[in-house]
Amino acid sequence: MRRLLLALPFALLPLAVAQAADEHDHDHEHGSLGAHEHGVGRLNAALDGQTLELELESPAMNLVGFEHAATSEADKAKVAAARAQLEQPLALFSLPAAAGCKVTRQELESPLFGDKPDDADDHDDDHDEEADKDGHEHHHDHSEIHAHYRFSCATPGALKALDLSKVFSTFPATQKIQVQLIGPSGQQGTEVTAKAAALTL
After folding, report:
1. Based on the number of CB atoms within 10 Å of its own CB, is 97 exposed (0-12), middle (13-18) or buried (19 or more)?
2. Cys bridge to 75: 70, 105, 128, 174, which one at CB 3.0-4.6 A?
3. Helix (H) or strand (E) holding 178
4. Residue whose C-alpha is closest to residue 80's, from 57, 107, 56, 114
């Protein structure tokens, strides 16, 4: 299943690139598909049998209001509050009770959570100290929060739609979410906003 989710962005890449070319001719060279853009989050979703996987990636700015390391008590409280919300995925993603979904795996990663190994991975390409220093500085200017969830759903047929309205209301700085989805109705790449936050599985 993990392999299915990892293959998802590649499976939908031609569609997404075609859309990006149509809508954002000027932004195409910036790689609007995976760019770090404030107000924009990304969600990969895959439903395969009874297994639902969701992978949310967002600039920290969208979720906590800043991207620097939390040093003040107020900032630490914001990070803790965001993490607590992300630790309640059944509520955050409004999964219907009728689907009988239970969380079987949950991972939250961000430099703001003190994830040193993840931070180190980001600098594998930096071979000298100077590059590492620059890369490290850049990394903190653009901190991301990644949340990966796996659910086992007793009645997957009850998962007719994925409603992200709670994500928008919980994290109001998030203006849109780019979604790539594999479900019973096939593959789709789309964009949702607070006003149109649901998509059909």
Report:
1. exposed
2. 70
3. strand 176-183
4. 114
Show me where the domains of the chain are located.
2-200
Report the predicted TM-score, pTM, of the whole model to 2 decimal places. Answer: 0.72
Q: Is the dihedral of CA 40, 41, 46, 47 positive or negative?
A: negative
Residues 25-75: pLDDT tens digits?
333 333 334 567 889 999 999 999 999 999 999 999 999 999 899 999 999
116, exposed or middle or buried, with CB in 10 Å at 0-12, 13-18, 19+?
exposed
Contacts of 144 (CB under 8 A, 6+ apart): 36, 57, 58, 59, 60, 110
pLDDT digits (tens, 9 = 90+) for 120-138: 444 444 444 444 444 443 3
